[in-house]
Amino acid sequence: MAGYDDRDGKIWMDGNLVDWRSANVHVLTHALHYASSVFEGERCYDGKVFLSRKHSERLLKSGQLMDMDIPYTVDQIEAAKQAVLDANALTDAYVRVVAFRGAGEDMGVASARNPVRMAVAAWEWGNYYGDAKMKGAKLDIAKWKRPSPDTIPTAAKAAGLYMICTMSKHAAEAKGCSDALFMDYRGYVAEATGANVFFVKDGEVHTPDPDAILNGLTRQTVIEMLEERGIKVHVRHIIPEELEGFEQCWLTGSAAEVTPVGQIGDYTFEVGQLTRDIAEGYEKRVRGL
To answer: Which intervals of the chain form a coiled coil (predicted)?
Structure first.
C-alpha cells in the first residue's frame, strides 16, 4: 500500500473535508516539537463506531489534562467522524481523531496563544497484530517503565506517552516479537505498547490496576463481559514473578481488539477456551450481535 501521506480520500481538518494529500501542517507546529497532542483510535464496524461518544468524551478529557481546551463539542466530533466515513465510503474502518497545538505566535515551551487544531482520518485496517490474532502474539519485555502519574498525566491519551512505546516496539520487532510488555515505575506489570493485558489462572482473570496506565475502553468492555459471564476479575497490582503461574493471556485495545498472547519473554501461555470465548464475544458485541 501507499504511504499514509499518499492516498486517495478525504480527511477532516478544522471543520472542513480536504483532499488526503493536502492534509498538512506547518513544520513549526507546536505539537511536532513539544508533543502537545492527544488522540483517539477507534474502530467502525458495519457503519457504526464502537463506543464512539465515549472516545470523543475521552479526547476532550485528555485535552483538559494537557491544559489544551479542544474547541469542539462531543456532538461536533461525532459529526466529523461520520463525515469522514461517508466521504470515504467506509463501513469497516479504523478512525483516528487527533487534536494538537498548531503553529502560531508562540514557538517555545509555552504555547497558550497557538490555536488548538483537530483532524479526523479513517482507513481500512486489518488485524493490528496480523496472524497473532489467531495463534497468539509473542511479546518482549520492555527495558523502559511506564511513568508515575506524578510525572506526566497518565490518564490522558497523549502523544508524549508513546515515545517509549515506539522504541520498545521497535526493539521487540527486531527480536521477532509482535509487541512489548511494560512494567510500571514501581515494577508492577503494566501494559503493552498500545494495549491493556489480562491473565487467566484457575478460571479467574487478573488484570493490572490502571492507577498508572490508561484505563482502556476495550479493557472496560472486556471486564464487563467477564462479569456478565460470572467470571471473577481481580483488578490489582501484579508482580512480574507471577507471569510463570498464569495459564492464559490476552491483550485488549481498540486497534488490538482482543488478541491472545502465546509468550511474554520466557513465559508461555496457551490460547485457551476463555481467551477464545472473550475474543469471539467481543467480535459479536462490537457488531451489536
So the answer is: none
